[in-house]
Design goal:
Layout: H1 3-10, H2 19-37, E1 47-54, E2 57-65, H3 67-72, H4 78-85, E3 90-93, H5 99-105, E4 114-118, E5 131-134, E6 148-154, H6 156-159, H7 167-183, E7 185-194, H8 202-217, E8 224-227, E9 233-237
Parallel strand pairs: 3-4, 3-6, 4-5, 6-7
Antiparallel strand pairs: 1-2, 7-9, 8-9
Helix pairs in contact: 7-8
Amino acid sequence: MSLRLIKALFRPAKPKITSEQKQASLIRAVERKEKKIITGMPIEDGYHTYNRPLGDIPVIVWKFYYAHKYFQNKMIDANMVSRLRKGASLLSVGTGPGHLERTLLAFSVPANNIDVADVKLHEHLENTTFTKYNFDAGNDWPTLRKKYDYIVFPESIQYAMDTKLSPIKGIQKMTKIIKSAYDNLNNNGEIRISLWVPKDTLDFWIKFWNMTKANVNSILPNLKWEIEPNLKTIIIRKPN
C-alpha cells in the first residue's frame, strides 16, 4: 500500500457544510456584488425610499429593500439560485427598481429565466432584458408567457393591501392574489412572500395570515404552507 493511500485513509473527513453555512456565505457574496450594481445609495441602511404617487394618493413613501434582505430572510436561498442557473423560472411581482432581480444576474442566472411585473415598471428596469409585465396583482392577471417554478412577492404584497379594507375584504383580496399566482405556477412550484411587519402589529398580522391560509385552503386544499413565526417569509408550495 502506497504512502499516499495510507495518508488518504487516515486523513480526517472534511466537515459537511450545513445549509445555514451555505446561506451565510451566499449573503456575503450578495452584499459584495450588489455594491457594484446599486451605486449612489446607502446599502448599509438596508433600504432606500422613493416618494411616488399611488392611485389617487398624490405622494406615498415607497420602501425598497436591497437584495441581501431577501437572502437574509430566506425568501431566496442557495438551492433556488442553483435551480435558476440551471433553467428554473422566476416571476417577481412588485419588482420596484429590481435590486433583487439585477443582483441575481450577477450570480449567472440568465435574464430569460427571470420575468418582472409591477403596476408601473421602474425606470431602473428600462434597459434590462427581462420580460416585463404591467399589472396590479390584486386585479385580474394578464396571460403570461409561461408558468413558473417560483413566483415571489418582495415586500410588494403588503402594498396590495388597501388600508381602507376591512380584515375580511383584505383576506379575500389576498386569497385572490394567491389564487392568481397558483394558476401561473408549475407543479411543485412555490410562491414566496417577503413581509415587513412592525413588532407592535405582529399579532394582528399573524391572525390575518392564518385566516388567509384557512380561506385559501378552502379552495386549494393541497397547498403546503411554511409561515415563519416572525412573518418575515411565507412559502406556499403547489403539489405535483
